[in-house]
Each structure stands twice: as structure tokens, then as C-alpha cells.
Amino acid sequence: MGSLVRSTTGEGRASEPPPVAHLNVLVVDDHSAYRALLGYFLQKLGVGHEAVGDGCQGLLAVIKRPFDLIISDCQMPQMDGYRMARAIRQHECRKGLKRVPIIALTANLQNDDPQRCRDAGMDAWLLKPLALEQLQATLARWLPGIAPVWGRPTAGAWPTRAHLVQTFGNERVVDQMLASLLDEAWEDFAFLDQACRTLSTPLTTQRLHRLVGSLAFLGGADLEFRGVKLIEQIHADGVLANASALQAFRADLRRCLEYLRSL
């Protein structure tokens, strides 16, 4: 997870964000915490944005008004990022519109590999956990007027409250982010238990993907890695064959969520 490091002038004052508020970025992600995080980063960079929760809403937003850039999660219910990107490219061709850059957002380039992104009409990708420097560099490549203002942060396995405050800027934002993320994570945790009981591979991997996104958001590297490997194993062998690994993962995940709730 990236943390926020303000660049300064020679007098030690924080530099002002560039005057690029006329630019508009569309953020498409089914994780409300990631939508809030990206919105917070874009606001700090002085870039206007709109955020929606799935590919269908993203496509409708593009049809309604133009955007300078789109950042979209790859894996979403209803319409995923790949289908949305293809639909946007078709819309541009039909209307004779300028091609808008589409940046893929993914926690795992093994499942969402660059070639698959390119084939869908995407132009680049951002990896979760998202570092501010990484976001800034991508925006600077595709949008005019974005200047380098962020530095590279450090990350830990389980974040401390101090680390979160450093990452998000202040206590109020941390409380909002944690509340939103934990509400979604506990809901996904309950659905994961249900999916495991029914031995449903699609539902189990879907909820694991969302939980891995939560862990990537906070920099929970060990659990995130285990979650990604579990998704691969369940796709290959099914839920029942991975029952023991799933049980151990859920127990450790519960401990992690309880820890985060105590922050």
C-alpha cells in the first residue's frame, strides 16, 4: 500500500496540486473503499472524477458525457472491466469519438494478464496495492498537466493506525476508510462461508477476489498472497479439494479483520 509523501519547496512548504481540475477521470470499481481511495488520491492531485460501482454503470457514464481517462477494476459482477472496455470501444467507433485511455486496475496480473487487458481495448494497468507514485506516473503519461508530486511509501504486513494515518492523510479519513472497508469485508466473509458450504467454485472465488482486494488495499501481503494462490487452486481443483486451506485462510482472515476493527 502506498503512503502519502508531500513534495516540498526549498522553504519546506507543501507544493500545490497542479491546475488540472478541468480533467475528468472515471473510476469503476465494485469495492467502495477502493473507489473512495482513488477519489481521495485524485482530489489531492487536483483532478476531477466520478466513481461508479460496476461496468454497466461505467458504460452508462461514458455514454452520458466524455471523460479524459478511465480507471477500471478488471473483476466485477454484472459487467466486468473487460466487457466494459470492449463496449466503450464499440461506442467510440459508432459515434466517431476520440479514444479515451482505459487503465486496468488489478490485484493479480496472473489472472488479469497484460495481453488480456490489451485485447479488451485497455491501454495500461495499475497493480493493487496501489501506490500514489504509481498512480501519479500513470496519470502523467496519459493526462496533460500532471506533475510528479508523490514519493514512494513503505508497507507492512498488517498496518498500524499510524501507518494508515500517514497513508490517508488524517484520522477522519482513516475512520471512514476502515468503516467502509470492514463493512464490506465482513459481508464478503459471511458470503464466503456460505459459498464454501455449498461447494460453489464461482461464488467462492468471487468472494475471495473481493477479500483479496481488501487485503491489497491495506497492504496485508501474506494473506493477500495466500488468497491469490487459493483462487488459482480452487479454479483448478474445486472447493472440496481445498477445504483445509480454505478453513485455515478464513481463520487467519478473521483474526486480521478483528485486529483492524480494534484500530
From TrEMBL:
Domain of life: Bacteria
Keywords: Phosphoprotein
TM spans (from-to): none
SUPFAM superfamilies: CheY-like, Histidine-containing phosphotransfer domain, HPT domain
Domain Response regulatory, first and last residues per copy: 24-143
PROSITE patterns registered for this protein in UniProt: RESPONSE_REGULATORY
Modification 4-aspartylphosphate occurs at: 73
Coiled coil: none
Gene3D superfamilies referenced in this protein's UniProt entry, alphabetically: 3.40.50.2300
Entries under InterPro entries matching the protein: CheY-like_superfamily (IPR011006), HPT_dom_sf (IPR036641), Sig_transdc_resp-reg_receiver (IPR001789)
PANTHER family associated with the record: HISTIDINE KINASE, HYBRID SIGNAL TRANSDUCTION HISTIDINE KINASE J
Name the UniProt record assigns to this protein: Response regulator
